[in-house]
Amino acid sequence: MATTVLDPTVPNGAIRRAPWRSPADQPAYARPALLVITVLAATLYAWGIDHSQYHTFYANAARSMTENWKAFFYGSFDPGNSITLDKLPGFLWPQAISARIFGFHPWALTLPQVIEGVAGLLVLYRVVRRWAGVNAALIAGTAFLVTPVVVGLFRTAVEDPLFTLCVLLAAEATQRAAEAGRLRPLVMAGVWVGIGFQSKMLEAWAVLPALALVYLISAPIALRKRLAHLTVSAVVMAAVSCSWMLAVTLTPAKDRPYVDGTTNNSAFSMVVGYNFLNRFSSLGISAASTGSISATQGGGHGGGRHGATGALGAGQNVGGRYGVAQNGGQSGATAPSGPGTAGTGQHPGAGHRGTGGHRRGTQGGFGGASGSDSASAQPFGSASGPRAAGAAQQAAGQQSAAGHGGLQGYGGGGGGWGGDQNGWSKMFGSSLASQTGWLYPLAAIAIACGLWWRRSKPRTDRIRLGFVMWGTWLATYFLVFSAGSVGGHTYYMGVIAVPLAALAGGGMTLLWHAYRAGGRRAWLLPGAVAATAAWGAYIADGFPTYLPWLAPAVGVLAVAAVVLLALARTGVRSGGRLALAGLAASLAAVLFAPSAWAVQVFNPSYGSSGMGSVGPSGGRGGGGGGRGQSNLAAGRMGQSPWGGARGKGTARGGGMGGFGDSGGQLTTQQQKLLDFTTAHRGSAQYVFATTSWSGASPYILAKGAEVLPLGGFTGRVPFPTPRQFQQLVNSGKLKYVLVSGSSRGMGAMFGGNADSTTSTTRITKWVESSCTLVPASAYGGTQSSAADANGSPGPGRGEVGATQTLYQCGSV
């Protein structure tokens, strides 16, 4: 007699299904379709991961965080724990853990973002499925998958991938909490927002209005209890959010790194002033009194005007990181369009002329050589000079090597309509709309119909609450980015792509049901498809040299969709195959154009940039119309300005998500310098000090060397002070100093080191007058080869480079 053995993990009567088979309550195609979408997402995000590149600034901290756990916790820029990043370190913790497991490689830092992207897509699917059903979730997942900025985001080693995943998880937890009025999942939502805060700081809190409204309106419990639950969740959220800042604040300054971006060594100043209030300087908001480095940043309605495609005018804001203008100055005259050109203009705040690129594409740095003769090629700019305008020109067929960009020029971004990446209408400009905004019309129609059609439903109505949540989410972030600084940071838009994709799924489903029901509402579906396709064709038409057939193809699909839907509606077979064909054509019409951008990650001519952009740049009014074969990978310039090995000059698509040299290897001269200082450091705590973080970067990335960078990211941070620096020298903790002209250029962009008041400038002058110059021959260098030691082209005086000089301080 046969004996039946029951699997204790499977309830009686339950049938174990293969992972590719849909649950009983879902259509048979649901699970297979989701698996296909997931595999496609993983492929898009991970394609070319073996060619990843380091983010030149953040990767230093990731390397330092793998060297010791103190650096891991504080997010120290250098292994010696002298100074932190100018951001909270949460987004780097997964990268550092990955590097500890797999070794420090560019792909190991990219891998966590790939995982976060796939997880984010699955969470979005889950949230939309519980809100509007399987079909809506599949459409939302597909829309999310083919949004260009999403593909670029999850290939990029920056803050936003983890932040985007966290706010999605918070939305999912809030959704569960609102269904039954439960406190526990609502508290978990607060925890996820708090973790998102560790990644993106106060931007994570912008999702709170959407989540709070959902629970406040729909939870099936008394109002007093809803308010109490929200209060508890808010307390937990604030505690998780502020935990790192409190830990830093309560730790004595002598026992932790200095907090970058501040004048008072305060984590709160870094978060609230440097990384938040500075973003809204165009609204008249000043961070000067917060103890932060106050760098006036463009954006909003008061930002400076743009240069040409791929340009960075000196008066152009770049979002607080890459070449910030002072006092919202204009970028000056628009430069001729085309690859490698840059907007130039007199900078009213700092009094120097800036350029967006370098003549030879060898070392543009952050916005190029600021007014210097291009032969000197100072990586972060220098004082103005008569040959400033000429420094902006490049040879034909080369990309401007301006800083971390190589993408839409940090604010110029292709001219474009609607102010492009400046002004209140920047979200409709070609640079951002082509990466994010293909579904604007569909989302707007979905919100209006969802709220109006279900206005008489009970307050707990699930469908209406979904439109409340996604609509509030979209409106809040749309307003924040419109008012604040964006610059060339396309990856900021990932959090906008989330509600757009969800509304696309929920909206198409809602409009389809209305279409099937008949009446006047039935015509809103073809109307929404026509409007969205027309907008998509308009965006595509702004890039005339990129797939010139794309806009006509979108138009043909839209016409086919509208005709099929109209015939099915007016014919005798309104619910048959004709209507389904019209629905399929509708989805193709609204998703075809962004898909054409997203798949460019497979094309070495375009690829993706370290700023989260995928596909062509340029656009309407920019004259570029596409990156084409002439563009270089972001950060893989003819010569790395931060002292990495010389770039290969490869096509832009060859790398992904990074900015610096992909190999992380020292040049021969750099290695000789490091060997010399290491051998002669004695008991010194630091191998040597550098007058800019860029000077320290190659040694940290390649070797994890304990190099002391001065001045923080901007060069204006008063750490160490001249007195503290001299104490380090007198106590024997520091013996060698590598003086770099690049530190002055970076400070000038922030209105800093151009004068003699900053600590770094005063220390530099003291070193030059009080310490002993070390000739290149002392460590095996020559006058002809020394210029290569820190990536500086041109002849030198026998020092480390044309603008690099090694000094020995203290007793000789």
UniProtKB/TrEMBL annotation:
InterPro entries: LipidA_mod_glycosyltrf_83 (IPR050297), RgtA/B/C-like (IPR038731), YkcA/B-like_C (IPR056785)
Localization in the cell: Cell membrane
Main location: membrane
Positions of region (Disordered): 321-414, 613-664, 783-803
Domain (Putative mannosyltransferase YkcA/B-like C-terminal): residue spans on this chain: 673-769
Segments of skewed composition (Gly residues): 340-354, 403-414, 613-628, 644-663
Keyword terms, alphabetized: Cell membrane, Glycosyltransferase, Membrane, Transferase, Transmembrane, Transmembrane helix
Boundaries of every Glycosyltransferase RgtA/B/C/D-like domain copy: 88-244
Membrane topology listed for this record: Multi-pass membrane protein
Any one Pfam family match given in the protein's UniProt record, by short name: YkcB_C
Transmembrane segments: 29-47, 131-154, 204-223, 230-250, 437-453, 465-485, 491-515, 522-540, 546-567, 579-599
Sequence ranges of Low complexity compositional bias: 371-402
PANTHER family: MANNOSYLTRANSFERASE YKCB-RELATED, UNDECAPRENYL PHOSPHATE-ALPHA-4-AMINO-4-DEOXY-L-ARABINOSE ARABINOSYL TRANSFERASE
Protein name according to UniProt: Mannosyltransferase
Organism, as annotated: Streptomyces longisporus
